[in-house]
Amino acid sequence: MEMPDAHWNRDECPMCGVIVMRSRFQPDRRLNTRMGVTLFLLGLLYVAFVAALIVLLKSWVLVVVIAAALLGAQYWFSDRIALFAMRGRIVEREEYPQLHGVIDRLCATADMPKPAVAVSGMEMPNAFATGRNADHAVVCVTTGLLRRLEPAELEGVLAHELSHVAHRDVAVITVASFLGVLAGLIVRFVFYSQLFGGGRRDQNTAVVFMTVMGVSAAVYALSFLLIRALCRYRELAADRAGAMLTGRPSALASALTKLTGDIAKIPTRDLRTAQAFNAFYFTPALGRTPGIQRLFSTHPSLEERLDQLGRISGELGESPASGEAG
């Protein structure tokens, strides 16, 4: 099926002048704008936060060193941290030839470096991408997902995850989430130091501790809202890019419906350890998100994602059977 012009790049060979048609993930200007605005606002918040800590704690060296160390660790080791937390491991082609084959084809179509391929033994059906750039990226799927999806559905999910890498929003979310992590750690540190610190504290010390805790809590709340807003849009952008790359939005819609329904059946206690990484997942590790909870969700609603994929299917002229082939 021929794809729309927006999905194809025309490259002219400098040697022979032949026009070559190549399919790639198209730049998403709206996503880039949102990422830039989010990072700018979080940067201002970060500077104000560090300045407030320096004034309150009267030790700029300690604050700057700790903040820089945490940011560096999160940026450079985010892929390892995520894989460790989700019990994932890098797998070779001999272990999962079909999985590697699908990623090979998608990367060739998208004209992008192939990321490392990982598998988690978790029953929860999901997938995520992580890493600081396209050359140091990992795409991980769970065995629960591999057992449930047809080949066309798996291709749609992997195209979605690869678009996160191509659009660099994985790295942006990693950096953006740092401020919330730092603020959260400070809140916990102050709370437990007050609770178990013992010893005598004068009134001024108590006021400083409470002020630090209040500022940290406010910063955490603001960064939380900014990141959630960006996360919801980037998921829609990845759905759109993945559907355009494969030309099968109905297969991606089928995978979304299937996985969302299956995750809802998994006991809540089994999802709790995974919820810390919801921002990176293909679909959130939540049974249901009723009412006001949707405002704080890392993902748009299933209905919103399916509506968008339905519009793309109409634009591409996709027949209903094309999404069901597997």
UniProtKB/TrEMBL annotation:
Entry annotated with the keyword Cytoplasm: no
CDD domains associated with the record: M48B_HtpX_like
Membrane topology: Multi-pass membrane protein
Active site (record annotation): 161
Note on cofactor: Binds 1 zinc ion per subunit.
Transmembrane residue ranges: 31-54, 60-77, 170-191, 206-227
Domain (Peptidase M48): residue spans on this chain: 97-310
Keyword Transferase in annotation: no
Cellular compartment(s): Cell membrane
PANTHER family on file: PROTEASE HTPX (PTHR43221), PROTEASE HTPX HOMOLOG (PTHR43221:SF2)
Alphabetical list of HAMAP family matching this protein: Pept_M48_protease_HtpX
Protein name per Swiss-Prot or TrEMBL: Protease HtpX homolog
Annotated organism of origin: Streptomyces vastus
